[in-house]
Amino acid sequence: MATLGSAIALEKCANGCPPTEDGMNFLGRLMMFTGSFPPVKTKLPAAVEAKMPVSKLSKEEAKNLLIKCRKRIDDAVMLVKSASPDSRYKHPRLGMLNAKQWFKFIRIHLEHHLKQLRRIKNKFQVI
Fold first, then answer.
1. How many domains does the chain divide into?
2. Longest dimension (CA), the chain
3. What's the CA gap between 116 and 47, in Å, rounded?
4. Which end of the chain is more exposed for a tag (fewer CB within 10 A), N or C?
5. Residue 59: which domain range?
6. How does pLDDT run across 60-80, given as a tens digit for each residue?
7. How many CB atoms sit inside 10 A of residue 90's CB?
8. How far is Cα 68 from Cα 75, in angstroms, rounded to an integer?
9. Domain with 7 in it: what CATH number?
10. pLDDT in tens, 13-47
């Protein structure tokens, strides 16, 4: 769900959010520079949790969401190239991101979840 929301924010930027001089905060710049989440566990911001409460999904629901996200991101790729770097949309933790930064954030966020899955898988293999 978060990736879908990020893809929507990317589209908003690519299609002309109001330009702003506001940019990323320190955490946003750090994540974009390192290309990964900081090595500390954090909780979901309350505002985000209110919009997207954590819920269990069936395999079919998860598969459909992945397909929907993939299509949305594939469609947005061409928009990113021509998007204005001054057109930004607010991320709950990272500040104002433009389309290219949203695209990079989506990759970082998905990689973070893949690391989580590998960590869980490795715990089961030890047992």
1. 1
2. 53
3. 23
4. C
5. 2-126
6. 988 898 898 889 888 888 889
7. 13
8. 11
9. 1.20.120
10. 988 888 888 899 999 999 999 999 888 887 777 77
